[in-house]
Design brief:
Blueprint: E1 8-21, E2 24-37, E3 41-45, H1 52-60, E4 67-76, E5 79-80, H2 86-92, E6 97-100, H3 104-107, H4 114-124, H5 128-223, H6 231-359, H7 363-384, H8 388-401, H9 407-410, H10 420-432, E7 438-442, H11 450-467, E8 470-475, E9 487-492, E10 495-501, H12 502-507, H13 512-519, E11 568-571, E12 574-576, H14 592-612
Parallel strand pairs: 3-8, 3-9, 6-7, 7-8
Antiparallel strand pairs: 1-2, 1-4, 4-5, 9-10, 10-12, 11-12
Helix pairs in contact: 4-8, 4-10, 5-6, 6-7, 8-10, 10-11
Length: 613
């Protein structure tokens, strides 16, 4: 079956996510699109900060409070998850879309037994009558809450503009303050330079004077007490005194020049600082006036938008709420009737069994009827809620399924009694308790050693096959996903720069960033030196113009710094956003280390195939 013929379970289109900070918007995700098919593993690969985890959190509806989905859609079962309410996410999160996080130890409570943590979600949602009621009113409740959320989200988005105009105003004003501070810093540096020059001059003066003073002292000691000292000694003393006087005069003159120069520099900078301070005050007043007008207009626009959203949604919200209230009344009556029916049936059967017990003549008959009474009570309680016994039985079954030995014993232990790999198996077990359709794995093997990594990857693959799960696997290491990915999306600076089938990404990579990731994977067969990716990811408050990877790529062309590349088609399932695929671009070969690895992998595959035959 081709990719196009498979069932799409999740579709992300043009997703844009920003985070509000004191420094501006962080553009974490910038217009990504991908589809997840039934029963496949889609791996999203990239460095830290590329937007992988933010994408997964937006799917789960757990973005931080300052996160905003600015554009795009996340379609799941006909619903756009970017527009649903938190109540609707409660119905989806965990139950239909599960998630495994990076560090199992931080995901588990260290002082709570494993069994309680696995069964907790089952017991919290154990009320079958409540679940029955929620199922009956879910469509009406979701429609009401979604309308409410859409209205409030629109109003919040309009209000954000006011907040960021205030931030922009302060940033612009801070730039003037910073320039003023730079002048003060320059004055301090000049002052220190003057002090250093004076210290250096004093040192030079002392070095020149000391030998002369020493000679003068020797000569004075020599003629001391003499009635008629030699004329030569007297002449030498006078010459030395003259030299010392000359040096002292030069020293004083040099000190005066340095101090005068320092005073002039400080005076000039002081005048500049005064002028700058005056200009800053005027500029800040101008900025205040300009931004206050813009903020005032933004407040007017906000009030207008708020009114429009209320006009657009209030009647709809009232209508949806009315429909929900009517449905709720009917559902409550139905659930109450069902509960009464269960209760009546239970007491009727109980009464019948008690009558039989009263008439029983033998001990065996009495014990049999008593067992039936206990079973009847258990059945009645089970019809009302999930019991601890049921939750434990399911937990033990899942623990065995994920490869935890002696589940009965392990059920009572604490997280610190488990190894890293076993803790990750527990986290996987918790994610599976609600039988989700989609499993998101956010770097689940990063904190584990290589051997345990392989075991966890194999476990995820097996669970995917047995449960027909669709998996989104997030990692920064292409080597981790080589044997488990069906398709791969390579992310950099909030964008998918290349995507395709796993074999296309590994055997025919086209984007320089994909080459860089492949070049940095340790390999036992390649003799070439591993290549580090130079530089660091860009500041996403100010994303670079053109191709974001250009500043770190040795294959970058002039156009990469000016214009963002579109997606170029390699095959029907393989696309890459790089100007190197433009027909006008010069032909560039991939790095030798990558081509060598591809050749070695293909050769090894051919050898294995030959041996298999």
């Amino acid at each position: 079956m081709s990719v196009q013929d498979k069932e799409i379970v999740l579709s992300v289109k043009d997703l844009v996510i920003h985070f509000s900070t004191d420094h501006g918007y962080v553009q974490a995700v910038r217009g990504i699109s991908f589809d997840l098919y039934k029963g496949e593993t889609l791996c999203i690969v990239g460095e830290s900060g590329s937007g992988k985890s933010v994408t997964s959190k937006s799917i789960m509806g757990i973005l931080s409070a300052n996160g905003r989905i600015k554009n795009g859609s996340i379609m799941y079962q006909g619903e756009d998850l970017t527009k649903v309410s938190e109540d609707e996410f409660h119905r989806i999160r965990g139950k239909k879309i599960g998630m495994i996080f990076q560090d199992p130890l931080s995901s588990l409570n260290p002082i709570v037994r494993i069994g309680h943590q696995i069964t907790e979600s089952m017991l919290i949602n154990s009320n079958r009558l409540k679940m029955m009621y929620e199922e009956k009113v879910s469509d009406e409740l979701v429609a009401y809450k979604n309308a409410l959320t859409e209205r409030n989200a629109g109003i919040a988005s309009a209000k954000d503009k006011i907040h960021f105009l205030k931030i922009d105003k302060e940033k612009v004003k801070d730039s003037y303050v910073l320039h003023h501070q730079n002048i003060s810093a320059q004055m301090y540096r000049k002052s220190q330079e003057t002090k250093n020059l004076l210290t250096e001059l004093a040192g030079d003066y002392n070095r020149d004077v000391e030998p002369l003073e020493a000679k003068l002292h020797v000569l004075k000691s020599k003629i001391k007490g003499q009635q008629n000292p030699p004329t030569a000694d007297l002449k030498a003393i006078e010459e030395l005194k003259g030299q010392l006087a000359e040096l002292k005069a030069k020293f004083k003159a040099a000190i005066a020049r340095i101090k005068e120069k320092g005073r002039k520099e400080q005076a000039a900078l002081r005048i500049e600082r005064i002028k700058e301070r005056r200009d800053n005050r005027l500029a800040c007043k101008k900025i205040d006036k300009e931004y206050n007008e813009r903020i005032k207009q933004a407040r007017i626009d906000y009030a207008k938008a708020k009114k429009e959203f209320h006009e657009k949604f209030d009647d709809l919200i009232v209508e949806k709420r009315s429909i929900f209230n009517e449905k709720s009344k009917v559902a409550k009556a139905e659930v109450k009737a069902y509960a009464a029916e269960l209760e009546a049936e239970f007491f009727a059967n109980k009464k019948e069994l008690r009558a039989k017990l009263k008439d029983a003549r033998t001990e065996h008959a009495k014990s049999t009827i008593k067992a039936e009474l206990i079973a009847l009570k258990d059945k009645y309680i089970s019809s009302l809620r999930i019991t601890k016994k049921e939750a434990k039985e399911k937990a033990l079954k899942i623990m065995a399924e994920v490869g935890i030995p002696q589940p009965e014993k392990r059920f009572k232990q604490f997280p610190f009694e488990f190894s890293g790999g076993m803790r990750q198996r527990i986290v996987i077990a918790i994610a599976l308790t609600a039988n989700p359709d989609i499993l998101i794995c956010d770097e689940p093997t990063t904190a584990l050693d290589v051997t345990i990594q392989a075991q966890i990857l194999e476990l995820i693959n097996r669970l995917k096959r047995e449960r027909n799960l669709s998996v989104i696997f997030i990692t920064h290491d292409l080597g981790v996903v080589a044997n488990m990915a069906d398709r791969v999306a390579v992310m950099y600076a909030g964008k998918i720069v290349e995507y395709g089938k796993a074999e296309e990404i590994f055997y025919d990579p086209r984007h320089p960033y994909t080459w860089a990731l492949l070049s940095s994977i340790p390999d036992v067969d390649s003799k070439e030196r591993l290549e580090a990716i130079p530089g660091t990811p860009p500041n996403m408050i100010y994303p670079p113009e053109g191709d974001a990877f250009a500043v770190r790529s040795k294959y970058a062309m002039a156009v990469d710094f000016k214009k963002e590349p579109p997606y170029f088609k390699v095959t029907d399932t393989h696309y890459a956003a790089t100007w190197l695929l433009d027909p006008r671009a010069p032909k560039v070969k991939m790095p030798v280390i990558v081509s060598t690895r591809i050749q070695n992998s293909l050769k090894a595959y051919a050898d294995r195939k030959k041996e298999g035959k």
